Amino acid sequence: MNFLVDAHLPRRLAHWLRLRGHDVIHTRDLPQGNHTGDSAINTRSVLEQRIVITKDADFVDSFILRKQPYKLLLVSTGNISNDDLIALFTRSIADIEQALETNEYIEISRTALIIHV
Fold it and tell me: Is the pTM of this model over 0.90?
């Protein structure tokens, strides 16, 4: 899968996903870095069929209104340490991958994986 990890999430998550064989870009890797605007992220997501992983609820609005980004994984954990975030993804990655095969917008909290239809 192709992912684009947004600025509010650590590069460590991008690295962790790469180790699992995914093609991953973090916003820090883009020309404007973490200052890359949401519209540029959405455009790149659609052009490269990248799933945006974010904590930013603005992406939910743009997904519902314009079907952008290409696909969306919303992280709704509130404040969480990087170690706890990686542990959450480690426990959930198989379910996340399966859900993203057939769904366009999913959400992960500390206790659940939610599929939005």
Answer: yes
